[in-house]
Amino acid sequence: MPKHLSRRNFLRTASLGATGAFIAARAPQDAFAQEVMIERAKNPRFLIVLSSFGGASQVDSFLSRRESEVPNAKALNAYPDDMVQTIGEFRAIDMKGPSIGAIPAAFTANQSNFARKHQNDMMVVTHTGTSVNHFVAQQRSINGNAAWHGRTLQEAVALTYGAGYAIPNVHLVNGTGFTERGTDNTLPAYVYGERAPTPNLWPLSLDGYKGIAGAPDRKLFEAARKFRNERLDPSSDFFRTFSGSQRVKHWTNIRGDALRGVEAEDLITKLMLFPDSEEMPLAAHGLQGSAIGQKVRETFPNYEFDPLEAQAALAFMLLRYGVSVTVTLGPEGSAVFKKGVKLGEGGLGEGDIVNPPISFDFSHQANRQVQAVMWNRQLSIAERLISLLKSEEFRDGQSFWDRSMIYFATEFGRTRRRPDNAMTFGSGHDLNNGSLIVSPLANGGRVLGGINVDDMLTYGFDPTTGKPEPGRHMTEPEMYSGIAHALGIDTAGSNLPDMRAMRRQA
Amino acid sequence: MTKHIITGLAAIAALAACATAPEPGLPQFAADAPAPVASVDPRVKFKDGERYLRDLSANLDMPREEICKELSRYDCMTDAFRIVLGGVEAPNLLVNEPIENAALTSPIAVDRVALHVCSNRVRMDRENPAKAVLFRAGAFGADGQAKNPDAKWLNATADAIYGSILMRSPSEREIQNLTAYYTQVSDGRAINSPDVAADWVILSCFAVASSLEAVFY
Asked: Of the candidates A226, A242, A265, which is a domain's last residue?
C-alpha cells in the first residue's frame, strides 16, 4: 500500500469494487485525489455527443421562421406559415416530400413530436463559429476552439467523473473532428477517447481470453501474462534498451491493472449487443449476448444495418453498465438504405433512404429536405436513447437520464439565401447557427438568443440572465463553458467565462 | 506438487541452464548478463495489426487468411480489431490515420490475437506432427514414456519459439526462463502429460508473441 494512503482510504477503495480498483490504479500515490475521484464517480454526469455532421441548421428546425414574420421572405430561408409550429419557445418543422432533392425517395420527417415531448429539457443556444471547414469546425464544437488548453468536452467529462469507470470516454463514430483527440497532453491516458468502430465485434476486444478455442485454462493464461510482464519482458535486451520509450511505458501501464479491471467487469458479455446467430455464433464459442440486449435491440431494431442505431444501442449499454461517462455517436458520411433495398430497379420507396450521403451536408443539394430528413433521424435516435435512460434507475429513484446531457454538436449553420420562393434549393456553410442541447441539467424550455428576421442570422444573449442581446454573437469558448458548467465540471483556473444562463439551476 | 516432480524439474532447469540447480519455479541468476546500453533517445513504433499478423503468418507457417479468426469467421485484423491495432479504414469508417497512442483495449486485442495464433499453431502441430513447427515430438523421450519433459526438447522448443516469432536465438537467460516456466504450467497436473506440454508450448508462444519485442519495433 502506498505510504500516502490511509488505511481508511484503502478500505474505501476496496469496498467500491471495480470503481475503487480503477481509481486505485489511476491515482496510486495520491490519497486526496482518490477521495475526489471516488466522490465524483459516485455522483457522475453523462455526456452524449450526438454529432450532427454537415451543419444541423437551427433555421431549419427550432429557430425557424414563418414567411409572414420575415420582411424579405421570398429571398431568405423562411418557411410557409403553415409548416412552422410553435411549441413553447421553440419552433418545429414537419415535412413530407416526394424526393430528397435529386434522390428519388419519398420521405416523412417530424420535429414537433420530439419538441412537444421534451421541450422542458430542450435548450437552444445561438452562437457563431470561426470556421466553415468541416473538420476544423467539428473540432471546435467540442473543444471550444481550444478554450481550455485544448481538451475536449468529452475529455473534461472523463477527467471529472471517469476515474472509476473502465473506459470513460468512448467514440462510436470515427474519422470526424467530433472525435479528434484534444491537444491537452497533460491529461491521464484514460480520459482520451477509445475508438469502438464496430459495435458487433468491438466487445471482443474487452477480454483477451474468452471465446478462443483450444486455449489453456484461464488461470494458466493469467499466469502466462504475469510471467511475460514480470519475467520475460524485463529480461529482454529489447526492454533494457528501449524501456525509456513513452510508447513502451504507456503499453506496460495499460496492460497492467487497467486491463485486469476491464476484463473483471465481463464487458465482453455485458456489451455484446448482438444475439447468438449464424452470423454471430456466440454460443459455439462459449460466449453469450448481453442480458439487456433484447431490450436494446427492440429499441433500435435496425442495429444490424444502420450504423447509427448500432452506435446508439452500444452507447446506452456503455452508460447503463457503468463503463463510460461520455459517448460520442453520430451519422457517418455514407448513405444508409433500409435493409433489403435494391438499387437500380426503378426508384426508391418512402423511407428507403435512412441517411443521405454526407448527412446534413447534402444540404448543398437540397437544404430543406435534407435538414428535415436528418433532423428527424437525429431526434428519433435521441428520443429512443432518452427513453432507455429514463427506464433505468441510477440510484435513489434517479434515472440515468436525470444525470445525462445530449449535445447535438455540429460544425456550422447553412447560408440563408434562396432563389425567390424556392422550396428546393442548395445551401452553403455559414458560421452563424445555434445548437440543441437536451438535458435535465440544462436551462430547459429556453431559447437563449434569438434570430434577426432581416437576415435570418442568430444573435446572442446575456451569459448570466439569458436575456436576448441583438448584436451580440456567442463564441465557441462560451458554448464550451456553458456545457461544461451545466455538467458540473469545475473549470477553476481555466479563465472560461461564467455561462450561468445555460444551467438548469441558474 | 509432489516431491519427485520438484526434483525432476529442478534437474531439467539445471540441464537447460548448465548451471547450478535453481529453486523450484523460476530460476535465480548468479549474475545478469551485461546490460545493453539503454537508449538515450528510445524511439519505437507499434507494429500495426496487419504487419503483426503477416509476420506471425510467415514465421509460424500459417496462411494469413486462416491465422486468426474471431467466432471462426471474422478476421482478427481486417474485421475485428483493425482500428484498435493501429490500422486505418478510410472507405467506411473514415479512419485515415492510425491511433496515435495505444488504446486501453489494444493490449487486450494483442493478447487475444496472440492466443488465437498460438492455440491454432499447436493444434495444427498436434494434428500433423510431421509438419509441426512448435510442438514437435519428443517431449517425453523417444518412446514418450519419460516421467519428465526431455531437457533437450525443452531447449529446442524454447529456441523454436524465439526463432519463429522474434527471428532470433534466445539468450541463455531466456531459455532458462521458458524451461523453468514449465513448472508453473504443470503445477497440480501430471507433469508428463502431452496436454500439459501442449499448454506450455501455447503459453510460451503466447508470452513471446505478445512481448514488447514482438509488439514494437
From this structure: A265
Of the three residues A265, A286, A304, the one that is the final residue of a domain is: A265
Is residue B95 very low, low, confident or very high in pLDDT (cuts 50, 70, 90)?
confident
Average pLDDT, chain B: 85
Residue A11 lies in a domain: no
pLDDT tens per residue across span A313-352: 999 999 999 999 999 999 988 899 988 888 877 778 888 9
Residues of B in contact with A244 (CB under 8 A): 38-39, 42
pLDDT-based confidence at A14, cuts 50/70/90? low
Is A233 in the same domain as A309? no
Same domain as A312, residue A188: yes
3-state helix, strand, coil in chain B (%, to 5): 55, 5, 45
Percent of residues in chain A assigned helix, strand, coil, to nearest 5 = 40, 15, 45
Has residue B38 been placed in a domain? Answer: no
- The CATH number given to whatever domain includes residue A120 is 3.40.720
Whether A371 is in a domain gets the answer yes
> Is 0.80 topped by the overall pTM?
yes
Stretch A147-158: mean pLDDT? 97
> Into how many domains does chain A fold?
2
Based on the fold, state whether residues A118 and A257 are members of the same structural domain: no
Q: Which of A207, A285, A332 faces B94 most closely, judged by CB atoms?
A: A332
Residue A17 domain-assigned (yes or no):
no
Q: ipTM, 2 decimals? A: 0.88
Q: Closest residue of A to B126, CA-based? A: A214
> Distance between alpha carbon A481 and the CA centroid of its chain, in Å?
17
With respect to residue B190, please indicate whether it lies within any of the assigned structural domains.
Answer: yes
Cβ-defined contact of A174 to B80 (cutoff 8 Å): no
Instruction: Find cell 429539457 and name the residue.
Output: A121
- For chain A, how many residues are written? 506
Q: Given CB atoms, is A26 within the 8 Å cutoff of chain B?
A: no
Report if residue B90 sits inside a domain: yes
Supply the pLDDT for residue B35: 65
- Pick the closest to residue B61 from B166, B164, B205, B158 (CA basis): B164
Note whether residue B74 is domain-resident.
yes
Nearest beta carbon to residue B74 from set A167, A201, A284 = A201
Substitution target from B179, B182, B212 for chain A, most A beta carbons within 10 A = B212
Q: For B62-94, how does the pLDDT look when each residue is reduced to its tens digit (9 = 90+)?
A: 999 999 999 999 999 999 999 999 999 888 888
pLDDT tier for residue B17 given thresholds of 50, 70 and 90: very low
In a domain, A13, yes or no: no
Say whether B207 and A207 touch across the interface (CB within 8 A).
no
Closest CA to B204 of B164, B168, B152: B164
Q: Tell me the DSSP string of A42-74.
A: HS--EEEEE--TTT--STTTTT--BGGG-TTTT
- pLDDT-based confidence at residue A11 (cuts at 50, 70, 90): low
> Of the candidates A276, A265, A324, A275, which has an alpha carbon nearest to the alpha carbon of residue A296?
A275
